[in-house]
Structures are given as C-alpha cells and as structure tokens.
Amino acid sequence: MSEDGPIMGVALRLPSGRVWTAEKPHRHGALIALMNCHEARADVAAAEQGFYLEDYSFVSRAEAMQIAKAAGQIRTTRIIDGIERTHEPVGNELYSEDLW
Length: 100
What we know:
Elements: E1 7-13, E2 19-23, H1 28-36, H2 41-45, E3 48-53, E4 58-60, H3 61-71, E5 77-80, E6 83-86
Antiparallel strand pairs: 1-2, 1-3, 3-4, 5-6
C-alpha cells in the first residue's frame, strides 16, 4: 500500500497503468466523462476506480477507506434537501460521497 496521506481526489487507473485524476469535489462519473473524450471507451470501461494521495499515488477504494478513516477524513454528516443528516459509509470501499 502507498504511504498514508490525505485523500486528495478521485482517480481511475487504465489497464495500461495510466492514471487519470480529478481534485475534490469531483466525482468518478465526471472523470469518466472527461476520459471518454480522450481514451478508448473499452479502456475507460475497464478502468479501476480509486483515489489519489498527496504524492499522486493511486490507491484502490478499499485502501482509500482505510487511509481516510485513519486520517479522520470520513464525513459524519451530509446535507440532503437542505437538512443535515448523519452519514456513515457503507461497506469497506470508499466513495467520494464519503468525503465531500
């Protein structure tokens, strides 16, 4: 696993090893839309979704969950329809909604 550091944004790793990134508060869907303009769609469909750290290293969703928990980056509340609600991640994989 990469050196622990704060989660900086979303990332997708293509089968070729090339990594695309987008800073917070972007979501994976926005990055996929951008990649579809520049990469073969089959490669984008096969990309692994994850996150990147401050040193720009790629981490999987599962690795990112562990890092974000250790760093205290997981949101505890979310605003939904103008109402603040308790938020708790589901499962052992991190999603951008868990962070921002």
